[in-house]
């Protein structure tokens, strides 16, 4: 199922905001201001003007606002949005809007209400709702398929009277169906035996399912694929490792990238295994009203059939609300994915700082307002920053949502409206990292330079071979040669030639260089696709290749 609008495109003027501050609370926020001391501010938009004046007197701030007859209030746009997701970054996150916005919530509520009426028409004992004709069914399904932005705005208009968002959906559907003779006879069976949370919990689950399937997973997969390509392209590019920030046994650039591809794939797979759950058991989870109205119907079985028909996992043990435990599991899994990507961002940032990567410049771009030479790793910094913000939002959701007083309190309602923010900042971060990866250019000369200055890293293989052949105190001898001292190719060769080792072993050691001492790194990098495919059943990379 897919959210649709009449034009096929959602724009900011149609207000499908990711932040509930914009979608529900714009009116109250328009009147907010806090201006210290005596300030006269004049704002002009087109022919409209707004004067704001604040006066300070006796430790009391007094705010007065005068609006001329021909003026208008601040209106929401990318310049006035409180959330940067709905402002500066809208173009990068708007793909989430059909699912995670107020529009998306209303759409899925409409879908659930209609599907429930259709389900009732299929229960023999509910004789008051007879089976619908093909025409009536088509009419109802058409309300879902043709649901438009204008329809959503009509629901909001009704809500201004009812002050209840779910009831507004019910009234909207009754209005829409009055003209259809069959459905007009059973209008009161819209929302039959339902509490608002029966509708909401399924709508939220469908929002998350569609957002993950249609937007988040494809972007995660592109990210994994981009890192896999980076790994394979640089499988044989030797690189000095650093442990504790100090030179360590060499690796290859490709193998270090492969690690991230595999780690991200593993978490992506974990996220995909989280089952979106739903309940449909009435006011406190016992089917109280259902059983009184129709005692002979097996309502738990009907509820399970209904929930699973929507592609969700049925949760039979609930209060008024679905327990939200699956949401916590989902968000924590996304946080783990995000944490790995933070690690990637920081490593790439460091490699750029070391000169291992150059960044392809773009004509017209500016790196610093005062230092013209700068080409900053802004994409990875942007990614890291947004991942941190996403994790903060998702952590709060994970900790708060599973907790509800007794059979239900309302604290989850306002919190659930913020699901789009955590996903939005994650999506923005993934796209920033992808953009940064696309600008990377390996500087092999710089990588080689560091390796040529680090012959001491061969102390490890030398002392290991010495152990094999029984040379006494191998570790101590290499420690004396290398620790805190300048080590050169010549000094290493001289040490090896003085060892009592079989000629074959000695010859092998003399051939070693910091460039060649990389173990199985090349093979690990070259086989990263196989490793990722084993984790994900080949789905991720093959899907990405087909799309590309």
TrEMBL record:
<dbReference type="InterPro" id="IPR000362">
    <property type="entry name" value="Fumarate_lyase_fam"/>
</dbReference>
<dbReference type="InterPro" id="IPR022761">
    <property type="entry name" value="Fumarate_lyase_N"/>
</dbReference>
<keyword id="KW-0658">Purine biosynthesis</keyword>
<dbReference type="InterPro" id="IPR008948">
    <property type="entry name" value="L-Aspartase-like"/>
</dbReference>
<protein>
    <recommendedName>
        <fullName>Adenylosuccinate lyase</fullName>
        <ecNumber>4.3.2.2</ecNumber>
    </recommendedName>
</protein>
<dbReference type="InterPro" id="IPR004769">
    <property type="entry name" value="Pur_lyase"/>
</dbReference>
<keyword id="KW-0456">Lyase</keyword>
<feature type="domain" description="Adenylosuccinate lyase PurB C-terminal">
    <location>
        <begin position="404"/>
        <end position="518"/>
    </location>
</feature>
<dbReference type="InterPro" id="IPR013539">
    <property type="entry name" value="PurB_C"/>
</dbReference>
<dbReference type="GO" id="GO:0004018">
    <property type="term" value="F:N6-(1,2-dicarboxyethyl)AMP AMP-lyase (fumarate-forming) activity"/>
</dbReference>
<dbReference type="Pfam" id="PF00206">
    <property type="entry name" value="Lyase_1"/>
</dbReference>
<dbReference type="InterPro" id="IPR020557">
    <property type="entry name" value="Fumarate_lyase_CS"/>
</dbReference>
<feature type="domain" description="Fumarate lyase N-terminal">
    <location>
        <begin position="88"/>
        <end position="388"/>
    </location>
</feature>
<dbReference type="GO" id="GO:0006188">
    <property type="term" value="P:IMP biosynthetic process"/>
</dbReference>
<dbReference type="Pfam" id="PF08328">
    <property type="entry name" value="ASL_C"/>
</dbReference>
<comment type="similarity">
    <text>Belongs to the lyase 1 family. Adenylosuccinate lyase subfamily.</text>
</comment>
<comment type="pathway">
    <text>Purine metabolism; AMP biosynthesis via de novo pathway; AMP from IMP: step 2/2.</text>
</comment>
<dbReference type="InterPro" id="IPR024083">
    <property type="entry name" value="Fumarase/histidase_N"/>
</dbReference>
<comment type="pathway">
    <text>Purine metabolism; IMP biosynthesis via de novo pathway; 5-amino-1-(5-phospho-D-ribosyl)imidazole-4-carboxamide from 5-amino-1-(5-phospho-D-ribosyl)imidazole-4-carboxylate: step 2/2.</text>
</comment>
<dbReference type="InterPro" id="IPR047136">
    <property type="entry name" value="PurB_bact"/>
</dbReference>
